[in-house]
Batch of 4 targets.
Target 1
Amino acid sequence: MRTEGTQPTAPARLEGIRRGGSRRRRPGRRRPGRRWLHAALLLAVVLLGVVLAAGCARQAASAEPDLDDFRAQVNARQYAEAIDELEAVVKEHADWAEAYHLLHRAYNESGDERNAGRILADLEQAARGGDLGEAGWFWLLQTYRKVKDEDGESNALARLAVAAEGASGLAEPAYWLGRAYYEKEEYDQARRFLARAAELDPDHISAHLWLGRSLVEARQLDAARAEAETVLKAEPENSEAHFLLGQVYNHANQFSEAIDAFAEGLELDPDSAVAHHNLGATYYQVQDFQAAVGEFLKALELDPGDPETHYQLGATYLQMALQGLDAAAPDGDLMHQAVSEFETALELEPDMPEALIGLGNVHIQEGDHAAAIDVLERAISKAGRFPEAHYALAEAYRRSGEAEKACAAYEAFLAMEVPSDWRSQAEQAMSRLGCP
């Protein structure tokens, strides 16, 4: 089965292969006076051999040359020599995508952006004409990330769509287009193309994995589990499939199974920061905060610049600090650690709503209601879809004695889809405040 990142190669060419044979001549006595005929026949055979040899030579000359020498030149930064020879190659082999790729790289690395763009345009033109093999489509689609940075996401997706339409019978273009839509968070489109890729090539491991992830985003959990199981049937030690199962179980609130799946995947791939993060988040949901902290710290060892993990670690410290709140004040050291993690998250991702909400909750516990209101209103202005922000803002207003504003914040909270216990608490608070 193919895994992500395996570049398909161009199909071998079978040019010049001929089927032939010889016919045995019956023995017999040569007729006198016919020697000139035999000599002529012999001469004809010799001439035919010369013609055939010349034809083979021409055919050999037109065959695709080995690119290893050109690749070595580019790797050695001998760009001028490589460019001259590769220009000749692509003129004779206009559909040879790998040669275009190497020529584009030579121009790009030598700083000749104009010609690099020209070569990419030539390759795209060949794509529109349907003249590329699977290797060509693969390379063209791989340019998505670079094009995305230079031309913007919309143009990048447009180029990917052209490629996928031109190679509608190939799995690889559909797979990469599906990946692009997934990264853009257009999950319906992602599922459409990833499903096509998996249908065209049932052994395409990465297509099944990313299809499963897009199904998780749509909360189609049974279908997502089926994709993970398809991969595990072929590759029982595929860590990503175990991680996908962990996500499925987590969203299904089967936390024990999720923990087992993440742990099994981490035995196979202990260096996955994302898996440590997700395992930590699952421990958080079952309120095993010590285990959650351990996983978040492991994730940050592997990826110290991830704002999500810093936020989650801060939220865990905050929950630990609030344990025993009825008996005594929150643990100051843990509260300080929570603030530190929230601030680090905001340094990495300014105006991150979750981190702002976390800071707002800290300020509420510390009695600094004005600071809480400030950061929570900032969070709502950046992302009003978080019900937690509205609830915390209502609490800050209530505790600061601003009943009218508290009622308005509770109403905004209740207008959203929220857990039943939170809804009940908000309704009780509104009743005590005498909200209309």
Target 2
Amino acid sequence: MKVANVALPTDPVRPQAEVRPEPAAAAEPRAPRSPGRWARMRAGLPRTGLAVLCGVLLALSFPPYGLWPLSVAAAGGLSLLTYRRSARQAAWTGFAFGLTFLLWLLFWLNVIGLDAWLLLAFFEALFVALMSAGLALTSRLRAWPLWTACLWVTQEWARDRVPLGGFPWGRLAFANTSSPFTPLAAIGGAPLVTFAVALSGALLAAALLQVWEHRKRSAGVKRAWVLPLGRARGLLRGSRTRLRPHRLQRPGAHRRGHQGRPASAEIAVIQGNVPHAGMDFLGRPMQVLEYHVAETEKLAALVKAGRAPKPQLVIWPENSSDVDPFVDPTAKALIQQTVDDIGVPVLVGALVNGPDANHVQNEGIVWSPTTGPARTTPSSTRCRSVNTCPTGRFSPSTSPNSSAFRSISTPERRPVSSRWVRPGSVT
């Protein structure tokens, strides 16, 4: 039986719906691809380069260059480079800044070994990296320049103590020994000087940021430059009047001296030098002492000839007597003869035996032309180093042959003397 195909009648009330093709599904928008690691690194290269440049500026503010204004510029530059960045970005920027600065500053350590120089610079730069992360976090606060100065002081405080007694080289204060900030040391020591330098750099950075914001928001470019820079100029002018350096004055300097002038002291500083660089810089025994004696004798001859004013005190540096003058009669007689020739007290930096046969102590001895060397205990005439730097004055390990320090204290790298400088107490 066949079934025929019969078309059904349409409903006259409900018309047949028109069949339309379904629209194609819209393509889903792709999520933006995050930049890869190499792309992020390339994007950060200019900032890293500027951090390296700021590290060089800070190095140039230290001796022998002594361009102290660059310390303010370097601190301000680091503040700008870390301003409102992430902690990770700021830490890398600070590490590049600190490593550049410390590699330059500590280059002299290569006489001990390349590993000692690189490792110490790397480790100390980590403190600057941590500080820079803090700079980025605090840059979002209202009084961020004050926080910046506090973080600089905290970083130097930590570096001065950790690890193994710390390594305090490279403080901002040490670049400002002859600057308008120097008188602050009489009030708060090196930390206050560092605080003032870092605060000045942060305020300079804040002024530049304000200039940039005014340039973006206002069409009056001239007003944008004049307003913040005028404030900065007033700040610097006030610092010049309040922080003017002074000559070294004696107690009672408020009294008037000859012809109504303030009382002052004439002090001669002798730098006799060492035979050569390296771990055996002391050369043969008494050689460094002879160098300082010769330079002091030259000064005495100039004074007798009237070609130089007679000093009231002569200062020799530490290790100027590389043998114990209380044990070696030749060294004692040589120093006494020199002091008699110059006719004024000499502060002698000497290595003195004690307190046992395995140690020496770093002492400063006032040697008088009338009474000779200070033998007794008054702290005003003889003192010993109280907190000596472990990485520069004595072995930080219990034994120089400890495995932790064997790589940088091998026999060929040790000084001529196998004894180590031991910290003492002021006597």
Target 3
Amino acid sequence: MNRIFEYFDIDTVLVQSSVIDFVDCKLNPSFYSANQTFINGLETKFLYELCKDIFNPPVFKREFINDVNECRYLASAEISSLEPEIDFITNEQANKLNLRVKNGWILVTGFGTIGNIRIVDSIINDFAVANNVARIIPKENFTGFIAAFLSSNYGNKLLNDYAAGAVVKYIEAPQIAQIPIPILPDDIITETNDLYLAAVRCREDAHNLLIKARTLVLEYNNLPPLEEAEFETLDRDKEIDLRLVSTKEFTDDFRLDANYYNPVAETIIAKLKLSQNKIVYSGELNISAFTPKMFARNYVDALNGIPFLSGKNLIQIRPTGLKYISKTETNDVSNLLVYKDYILVTRAGTVGRTIYIYHNYENFAVSDNVLRIIPNSGSIDPGYYYAFLSSDYGFYQIDRFKHGSVIDVIDDDYLNSLLIPIPEKDQQKEIGDLVRQAYDLRAEAIRLEDEAQEILTKALTGK
């Protein structure tokens, strides 16, 4: 037995029979892990005692439709996204199965990745959410505190310890309801609660600023919203994008994939060419647009490494499962780092999600599955550039260049071939300033949550 400990890092703990849960026959070791020793000696209450309700909707077959007048739907993977991808299901299905979430509820992912937490805000209020995401309806003045605790290392470990599943772990409302929540002094609960709710408000304000910025992109370039545009299709029911393509439209590289000639992209290009403003190719605005070479990822601890972001991390409210790559054992590591005013574009799998580097990930290393654009600030305001690329007029131009039979990808050369309208400099700056204010608010939200976690950790450990 002792030789096993020489080769494996095994978490062991002696469990007294008095604490064995014989009611639910809980005999899985993780349920009694050493992760839970921090609550010894603390007054606790079960989570359900601090809540009005905790529940999961029933399992259901998703009936996706393409109608913006129906109910917006979020999959579990999108809960932690800053600007989630949205599908639509019928209002009837959403109401019948009680799928809608409301302001102030707490969402907890319970399948695959356990314990991603989000307080429902005005951004996703009244969305339908997947059934494998538990809903917590807290009692008054506990929303931020509960979210802070469940988001902490201590709360996340408890959620994972209480999860079941031999291959894919899962946890649902009955198990979440039994999570012990430490009852800390009133001033600690109030402070952490207020800090987390203030962070929510910062993200709501940031979201609204970005919407305003993208609205001004359309206004100053005399571009109609895409939902008002008519798309060419031979399908009478307009359910399939079907159009005839002239050989005159073929490019020098003879793109024969249908997506390249999709009606949305063609409509966007036509509308851009009618803009009153000067239109230039993005290559004229870029110092560089590139993808780093593939590299071996030598992961190390935080003290000896550089924070490393995957494409998934970049679109999250705050990166989960953050890893660190070696400073000394990674080839050409400097080429992986990103800096202020870089614009990043996801290039594989989910193509075209755009991120602006501003008071968030400066000097982080980023995956080679993410494209880098270095704007020439003398030719264009980087904030305006980001606002355009993240609008529908930017996204669908990028999306048309994707290719791949199994996994969609886009090459960096295409980022020099986008059509970009150039409004007056003061208009660019106005839009760019809105973007920068939004990213400042996102940074403030992270700071507020970090402050709450420091207060919580000190209260739980005395350190």
Target 4
Amino acid sequence: MIPYTDAVVLRDRDANTAWEDEADGTLEERVYYCQNWRADVSAILTATGKMVEWVKYSAYGVPFALPAGDTNSDGDWDATDAAAILNSSSYDVRQDAELDGDVDSSDAVHAHSITGAYQTLGRGVLSSAAVNNRRGYAGYEYDPTFEGAERWLYHVRHRVYDAEVGRWTRRDPLGYVDGMSLYEYVEANPLALLDAFGLAGTPPCATCIDPPVSRPPVIEPPVRPSPVTPGPIWVPDKTPWWKKPIKVTPGPNLTPRQIVKPGPLGLCILTFCGFYCLGEQISPHVIRPIDPIIPLPPGTTIDLDPDDPCKKAKDEKKKACGAPGVPSPPWSPRGLPPRKGMPGDPLRRWYCEAIDNRLGNAQRCLAARRKVTDLCYGGETDDAHAAEEERIQKSIDALNDLKELFCSGQNEAVQ
């Protein structure tokens, strides 16, 4: 399992040739990367575990690089730092450039060997020219081109991130999924959220994924989600989505989705697939990627999955309950014929058969509605659906009363 999309383990380099020249086939350098909880590259070590350089970051990612041996954390390796190591009387990890547990003259020798001279890094520098590290804040790919202009840019797949202002340099390609600001970085909460794709902020766990095609989202009930009919975008409430099940409220132009729950630590998912119903080409469950922001061309239809239990349940409900809004649906007592004839008369039998038919329709309609609630909405319903189910139940009770009164064979009366 890949612990994080931008995790880095090590870097091998053919250090004695220019980047545009052919390598000589000999490995001169191997360094190991150390990353913190947010995947910031916080230190680089040699193959033998000695410090090369380490980095601190502002909350939004402006780097502050410190070379090995920088004993006072001012961003440079100079004579002051060398003297502090040589005259040390107590242990300080910043003086222990070799990270071997003690401070001695060999630490000063190692710190000086990184570049062969004193060096200055500090704020706004991610790495020295000798090391040339390009991985920085949150594991993003750093672009040193504009360092001199005090702009610290990171390439994050779909967008470029400007750490100095803590904003993206272009609009969110997914629209308003991350809030009303199209340029805001992780909802202005960089200590709690990450964005490995430049699309939407997620908790650090949500980017702990295998390659997307190898692990589907965790879905309850276990059926494939239906594509989303283009329409208005669902706006989530303020409750953090990873603390509750996620359900899209159905509307006139929006097909409800299956409930999606974030999995445990070993089953994290990309939230912009499961939460926002966008970027669906990454999900193995999706039939066709559809962006609900863009309307479909006139006459275009969406092929739903014929095996989708939710769709089947809705078809059954439509057949059992009839078209919505009809004054006398097939399960209502209002559509009964007039009561005529004596008990045993053909007209009375016709009336009682009509009661039985409508009673059966009402029972099938109620069962079909509850099946849709279970399969499509995880057993949860809203006030309007609850009121409709109550109305059908009252019709069942009324039809049973009419049947008992007029069709039991012992309590019938001439009307």
